[in-house]
Amino acid sequence: MPITVNDQKKLFRLDAGNSTYIMQVRENGYLLHLYYGSHISDSDVSHLLDNHINAAFSPLPPSRESSYFSLDTQPQEYSCNGAGDFRISALSVKMPNGSTSTELKYASYKIIDGKPSLEGLPATYVNCDSEAKTLEITMEDTLSGAEVVLCYTAFESLNAIARNVRIRNTSDALLKVDRAYSMTLDLNRADFDLIHFHGKHVAERKFERSPLIHGIQSIASKRGSSSHNHNPFVILCDKTATETFGEAYGFSFVYSGNFASDIEVDCFDHTRVIMGINPTDFEWLLSPGDFFTTPEVVMVYSDAGLEKLSHTYHRLYRKNLCRGPWRDAKRPILVNNWEATYFEFNSDKLVNIAKDAAELGIEMLVMDDGWFGNRNDDHSSLGDWFVNEDKISGGLDALVKRVNDLGLKFGIWFEPEMISPISKLYEAHPDWCLHVNGRDRSTGRQQLVLDMSRKDVRDYLFNVMSEILSSSNIAYVKWDFNRNLSEVGSELLPPEQQHEVFHRYVLGLYELLERLITAFPNVLFEGCSGGGGRFDPAMLYYSPQIWTSDNTDAIERCYIQYGTSFAYPASSMSAHVSASPNHQTGRATSFKTRGNVAMAGAFGYELDLNKLSVEEKQLVKEQVESYHKYYHIINFGDFYRLISPYDNNYYCAWEYVSEDKNEALLTFVSMRVVINHTYFVRLRGLDPTKIYVDVATGDEYHGDTLMNAGLRLKEWMGDGSSIVKYFKAKE
Ligand code: DGJ
Known about the structure:
Layout: E1 3-6, E2 11-16, E3 19-25, E4 31-38, E5 91-94, E6 105-113, E7 132-141, E8 146-155, E9 160-169, E10 175-187, E11 192-200, E12 203-211, E13 215-221, E14 230-238, E15 248-253, E16 259-265, E17 271-277, E18 284-286, E19 291-293, E20 297-302, H1 305-320, E21 334-336, H2 338-341, H3 347-360, E22 364-367, H4 396-405, E23 409-414, E24 418-419, H5 424-428, E25 448-449, H6 455-471, E26 476-479, H7 501-519, E27 524-527, H8 537-542, E28 545-547, H9 554-564, E29 573-578, H10 591-598, E30 602-606, H11 614-636, E31 638-643, H12 645-648, E32 651-657, E33 663-670, E34 679-681, E35 691-694, E36 700-702, H13 703-709, E37 711-713, E38 721-729
Parallel strand pairs: 21-22, 21-30, 22-23, 23-26, 26-27, 27-28, 28-29, 29-30
Antiparallel strand pairs: 1-2, 2-3, 3-4, 5-10, 6-7, 7-8, 8-9, 9-19, 9-20, 10-17, 10-18, 11-12, 11-14, 13-16, 14-15, 15-20, 16-17, 24-25, 31-32, 32-33, 33-38, 34-37, 35-36, 35-38
The chain binds (2R,3S,4R,5S)-2-(hydroxymethyl)piperidine-3,4,5-triol.
(2R,3S,4R,5S)-2-(hydroxymethyl)piperidine-3,4,5-triol (DGJ) binds at residues 338, 368-369, 413, 480, 482, 528, 530-531, 547, 550.
């Protein structure tokens, strides 16, 4: 039973997988957090409450249960602003009298089979009601009339709990939500390391691990997107935690806009985590009867290190977040023309690439940026989504047919949310971009951002994109987004709602995506934001794969894909073989290693196939064949980070193991040669009793030997070299 309630003691207990989460309503009506961690048998663990801390200077509420009961020291289930808890708070509601002092007391609860969807928001879901149960606890602030429903979905067989809140105005007056995080978690210890994933364009999701410090640490974005700079995902783990040992708590925010993940360690060595929409430039007006729903946070607990944490996220996001036929269907191996041609292409050039692609076994051609309006560089035409027949002679349908006739599917690039000041759309609708009247409009990559909070803008985009997608046999859309938001104002909203624009933008984006994937259910959507600038779980709800980074250098990708793998499954990470020397780094890497590294995700090519040598073409054929052979292991198996590229900066290794543990694929990459050295790696996740054959050499090992004693690699490994070993269990 994932949810049990002791009505007498007002204890709420969630059992998600082998994790337990307990909270209790105290006699004074406050909802306190008692426990989150490995399964425990007792539910009444109220002895854990610290009722004897003398919080001198911290105010005590009149309804205190002991002379030491202060909201400032008690573990709150959902922390509020201004009523005596001085730590970071999740909720602040402004009343008509201007006060933001907010206080919630328990009202009621209900349990729902399965998991309700979040209206207008991406969220995890259940495939059948038996997969999870949802607990909704209603809290109320009687003075302001704010009613807050705390929602918890506990997944039956995964250590995962999805949380969000719904705030309703039950008063007769206007309320203003000042901040509404999606969750609070108070833990009664502080000896944690914080792991998070920071970065920049072409260097996303760098792994960083450091001990928590007293005070507040914030991992956040105010850019209007989840961003290259910080991913909406953090981990707290034991200082001694490794891949396979120790406790770890993950917090993953299913949202693509401004977010904040704030962690505070207080003077009593308690840790508070809050995660949600970034309160900077956020406010939400609630008319009487209206409600506001926050996006959800997916919390995952692991009692066995970071690997188990990742496996839980991978399973959940693969099966309970990604949707549509492409969630499980085999995705096509594609060739994208961006790094092959940039803007310099026409139909014949694309068809020539497609001809080679067809011969080599590649299954789809993707036409990237530059096919529309008058776009021959990045100075113009975003918004003018009509085909440039100077380049695409005879029109799109003619090109698609030529490509289809070669046996390839056809995919197309859009950057729907943008508008170039040099475009027909801007001439017609200069007010359609985000802007603040009287201020200059800052451009990024020479472009402005459309106001996605506007229905007329979204309708335009839906119509113009639908026209293109219905005009020919288009199998795939790459949805790009190449700048962050500034001068965030909307022409249609009154002054008192201008702070809603950031969030309304994101809601508008989700609405448009939903309309399009509903209208074109068989089209495979791939997310992109200058590479991985919007690599978040919310985008996976609409597009099961995301372009991981604009950095296609195989060595750099070892780091980027490593960081990405902590929350996101291999099936979500697009990875392509590109030209050497690499266009971003200038580094030369062997064709083989480029293939081995790109095979760690949704595989493809991003180079001019016409320029490949005979030997390279042969390698493409072999890579394509291997990817087909290993597809199910990579995309549906379990992923193991065996050697981190950060551990030594010289080499790294990872492994996939098929669900039935009969197959394993080991990849080892030497990023920089270590002189006079041989390498050693220990595998994981195998069946210790099975005998595995190294299919290339015929060598046999027991699973326990490969995992406990390990494998000495005999190959010489120079700069940028790599090996892949495929192991198959004997019948
Ligand atoms: C940024 C993307 O990440 C690239 O792959 C490419 O599509 C360019 N935009 C095109 O402008």
